[in-house]
Design brief:
Chain lengths: 114, 549
């Protein structure tokens, strides 16, 4: 499981970085989205990997912390997902505005060699 | 007696949030302006009240806590007020009000939600200064960044959209690095609270320290992108130049947020107390800060327009502050940090004034007018509507060029660090604190080559600012020109005069201000006080139970 997760994070981040460095705005936004998936998985993995654990403590019962998952990274991931979703949506708007103003989807607003 | 929670502590976050949200319901621009100005006018009052509280410690602790939801301290979200955060709150509020007044003179007509975004930006800034844990720092960074994206694009136009695209892309990438750093630190130490982190980091087993340092490095890079340290700074000059002037004026504090975060985290977790990781990355800060000064200096000399010049001056200012912090982390001592803080306040005020002035001076030189025309077109405003909205000239300023010239001269003095204004006091305090760590008159210090190099850079950057600003000044004010005198409204020059008056005030009252800075610097050198204050915070509930018994 560790191998699969770290491979997934690695592949997502690597393709994200590559796309982020591409000259077209659409590639940049897809790259940012992939990067944020990779980062979200990474945050998740910081709570340690465990199958079948619960993260919400039952009321009244005697709690053995070792039997539960760490809920904090899950809360962090939720926040991070919401924020990156919103900022990506905003970026999309700016991307379209830039396309409308310049007539090209190059990140510098003009084709190379122009 | 029941200890009452200090609700005033959360006011700098709630007030802009409520004001910003309320304004979304109003179509009427006048109502928006009133709400926005009232909120921004209340902020300095609150900030100074908080400054007062931070200065007068009570109950044996020097930091004040606000436990949100009254959860016990290291586990839940806390707001922490100490001298440094109170100082930053005051600077923010003092910069915000003039920028907003300037915007009311006309710039806020260019888009729908200027005032709401402005308030949300203030909320993010205040929150970032007050928060006591790393993840909330991330959240408030995102709040202020999201608002700044909107403000950056305020007024639209190809130049702004293109600069905004780069600005958003690099900040989104930096935010992801921020998340990696935060989660790595959480994975290693199991805490997000900065005070708790200071304790846990010091007690970390050897095997985990590498991961902690890696996390801190990722975090540091995210902060430094925001602080625009060379080579992470190429986005800054164009962004600040392209932004609408009142927006650029408040952005002058935004690059300081990154430096503040570096200072806060480094002094807590990697200060002298953390034996194994003490001074982590300090050399990098010094080198990067000095490179930033050099880059900004050449940028200032090469700039053609005043907007770009101001953008490059921001780099010089943050570079100086960063390098000074790096040297303090290497053991620079209290007087130097106090000088650096004073310099930061003075240069932020001067830069903010310069951004506002750039608009007035360049108004009739084509650039801005052309931009305005494009904007009007993009938003589908007819010419008639703009004209009808144009304020009448009855409040126009007499002797425009004289007043503008005097203000410009004051800005040049401030940025170059020449007497008699506060720029000189700041640079002098910074350099003398570095060269005489034992205080003036104690001839014990032999200046290191690094210190001498830093001194030379600071002085040369001042010279560069002077040369560049003189050049612009001569072109604008002394060369007889056929261009019309720009039409400047009283409401536009008043914010600039107010900002300059504040710099004059901190020059005249340099002693009490400096004493505050020294107390702040001393507190930053004793992180254990902060840590004890945060971890030993009494809950309201405990107090009530004690009363009942």
């Amino acid at each position: 499981m560790e191998l699969v997760l770290s491979l997934a994070i690695g592949v997502l981040v690597a393709s994200g970085v590559w796309l982020l460095l591409r000259p077209r705005t659409y590639q940049v936004i897809v790259g940012l989205a992939l990067l944020s998936y990779g980062v979200n998985l990474f945050i998740f993995s910081m709570g340690r990997l465990r199958v079948g654990g619960s993260s919400i403590v039952e009321k009244g019962a005697v709690v053995d912390p070792a039997a539960y998952l760490d809920p904090v990274p899950q809360a962090l991931v939720l926040t991070a997902i919401v924020i990156s979703f919103a900022t990506t949506a905003l970026f999309l708007v700016v991307l379209l505005a830039s396309r409308g103003f310049t007539g090209t989807d190059h990140v510098d607003g003009k084709e190379p060699g122009e | 007696m029941t200890p009452t929670p200090e609700h005033l502590l959360i006011a700098p976050i709630l007030l802009p949030l409520l004001a910003g949200a309320l304004m979304l319901f109003y179509e009427d621009r006048r109502a928006k302006r009133v709400i926005s100005l009232v909120a921004a006018g209340l902020l300095p009052i609150i900030a100074f009240a908080l400054l007062d509280r931070a200065e007068a410690p009570s109950g044996g602790t020097e930091v004040r806590l606000y436990l949100l939801g009254d959860w016990p301290s290291p586990f839940a979200i806390v707001l922490v007020l100490d001298r440094l955060s109170a100082l930053m709150l005051v600077v923010t509020s003092v910069l915000a009000l003039p920028a907003l007044v300037f915007a009311v003179a006309g710039w806020d007509r260019q888009g729908q939600h200027f005032h709401s975004l402005f308030q949300f930006l203030l909320m993010g800034l205040n929150g970032a200064f007050l928060t006591g844990d790393l993840f909330n720092l991330f959240v408030f960074f995102e709040v202020l960044l999201a608002a700044s994206y909107g403000l950056m694009l305020h007024g639209s136009g190809p130049l702004r959209v293109r600069a905004g695209l780069h600005y958003i892309a690099i900040n989104l990438a930096a935010s992801l690095l921020f998340l990696i750093g935060v989660s790595l630190i959480y994975g290693v130490t199991g805490t997000l609270n900065m005070a708790d982190l200071a304790v846990k980091a010091a007690a970390l087993p050897e095997a985990d320290r590498g991961l902690l340092r890696a996390g801190a490095a990722a975090l540091g890079i995210a902060f430094l992108v925001k602080a625009a340290m060379w080579p992470l700074c190429f986005w800054l000059p164009i962004t600040y130049m392209a932004a609408a002037p009142p927006v650029a004026a408040i952005f002058a504090i935004m690059s300081k947020v990154g430096v503040y975060a570096v200072l806060r985290v480094a002094s807590l977790a990697f200060g002298a107390g953390a034996a194994h990781s003490a001074g982590l990355g300090a050399e990098l800060l010094v080198a990067g800060g000095m490179a930033t000064i050099a880059f900004g200096m050449f940028g200032v000399l090469a700039s053609q327009g005043l907007g770009r010049l101001a953008g490059c001056s921001v780099l010089v200012s943050t570079g100086t502050f960063l390098a000074a912090i790096g040297m303090v982390l290497l053991g620079g001592g209290t007087p130097m940090l106090a000088g650096a803080l004073y310099y930061m306040v003075s240069s932020s005020l001067a830069l903010s004034a310069l951004f506002l002035m750039a608009d007035l001076i360049e108004r009739n030189q084509g650039g801005v007018a052309a931009m305005l025309a494009v904007t009007a077109e993009a938003y589908g405003f007819g010419d008639e509507e703009l004209d009808a909205d144009e304020p009448t000239a009855e409040l126009a300023l007499p002797g425009t060029m004289t007043v503008l010239g005097l203000c410009f001269g004051a800005c040049a003095l401030l940025l170059a660090g020449l007497p008699p204004l506060s720029g000189f006091v700041g640079k002098f305090a910074l350099l003398s604190g570095m060269l005489n760590p034992g205080g003036l008159g104690a001839h014990d210090a032999t200046a290191s080559p690094l210190a001498l190099g830093f001194t030379a850079l600071v002085i040369f950057s001042g010279l560069a600012a002077l040369v560049a600003l003189l050049r612009v000044g001569i072109q604008t004010f002394w060369v007889p020109s056929e261009e019309e005198v720009p039409k400047v409204l009283l409401i536009e020059i008043a914010p600039i005069l107010a900002l300059l008056a504040v710099t004059l005030a901190i020059t005249v009252e340099a002693q009490p201000v400096m004493r505050y800075m020294q107390a702040t610097a001393a507190a930053l050198h004793r992180p254990e006080v902060y840590v004890e204050g945060v971890l030993g915070a009494p809950r309201v509930q405990d107090g009530e139970e004690a009363v009942e018994e």
